[in-house]
TrEMBL record:
Signal peptide: none annotated. Keywords: Chaperone. Residues 9-54 form the Ubiquitin-like domain. GO terms for biological process: protein stabilization. It holds the Pfam family ubiquitin. This is Ubiquitin-like domain-containing protein.
């Protein structure tokens, strides 16, 4: 059975049983670790020989590091997604203001300024997110969206200042009450 079996092949067979990848396994025979290219029969392994399989201690550390890294990536994705949803809402408000001004309606300047401040808060949140890889690309995309909205609002603020407000006046007419007569006639 052990004739011409390579230690690396045995590790592959044991992956299903142990859940450990071949690189995470160590095969020990007669107190010595056997390398992937070692032929087990050449090492003296025969039927009923005792071969010890151990988990490589460094693989545990690598898995723990990988799990922490994945948790950080997921946290970054969630934080960026939260900012993205908020930016979506604020972008709708920017569009509404843009539509109002293009229709000739003057918008209170405080409304534009408040919206710029809200967008800048989202930019600060984005800046505080540690991201790498795909999350970094998403972070940059959201940052550009915020910047575009703020730039649009800056232009709208100028346009809004040029809008002549429509003033509706009503000329009220007043009527004098009919004169009262001080003279009363009495009938008997």
């Amino acid at each position: 059975m052990w004739l011409c079996v390579v230690a690396g092949e045995l590790k592959k067979l044991l992956t299903a049983e142990t859940g450990l990848q071949p690189g995470e396994q160590r095969l020990i025979f007669r107190g010595k670790e056997r390398e992937n290219g070692d032929y087990l029969d050449m090492c003296g392994v025969k039927d009923r020989s005792k071969v010890i399989l151990m988990e490589d201690p460094s693989s545990r550390e690598r898995r723990a590091i990988e799990m922490r890294r994945n948790a950080k990536i997921q946290t970054a994705h969630r934080a960026i997604s939260d900012v993205s949803m908020e930016v979506d809402k604020l972008a709708e408000q920017v569009s509404a203001i843009e539509k109002s001004i293009s229709n000739g309606t003057k918008v209170p300047e405080v409304q534009i300024t408040t919206l710029i401040e809200m967008l800048m808060r989202q930019a600060i949140k984005l800046d505080g997110i540690a991201a790498e890889g795909d999350a970094s690309a998403q972070k940059n995309l959201q940052g550009k969206r915020v910047q575009k909205c703020v730039e649009t609002l800056d232009v709208l603020k100028i346009s809004n200042g040029k809008v002549k407000p429509v003033i509706v006046t009503t000329k009220w007419e007043t009527f004098d009450p009919p004169p009262t007569t001080a003279h009363w006639e009495f009938f008997d």
